[in-house]
Amino acid sequence: MMRRVALLVAAGLAALAPMASAGSPAAPEPLLGGVTVQEVLRHGALSAQIVDYEGTKVLSVLRGPLMETITVNHAHKRPGLTRLDFLSPDGVAGRVVIDDGSRTWHYEPRLHVAFVGPSVAVPADAAERLPTERYRVRLLGIEEVIGRPTVVLSLWPHAGRRERRLWIDRLTGVMLRSEERDPDEGLVAVVYFTRISFGLNLPAALFQPRLPAGARVVSQDGPTTTPVPLSVLEQRVGFALRAPAALPGGFRLLGGSPVRDGPVVAAHLHYTDGIRPLALFVAPASRIGPPGRGDPVAELGADARTVVVGAMRLVLWRSGDRRLTLVGPLSLAELVRVAHSLGQAP
Question: Parallel, antiparallel, or unpaired for β 96-99 and 81-88?
Answer without folding.
Answer: antiparallel
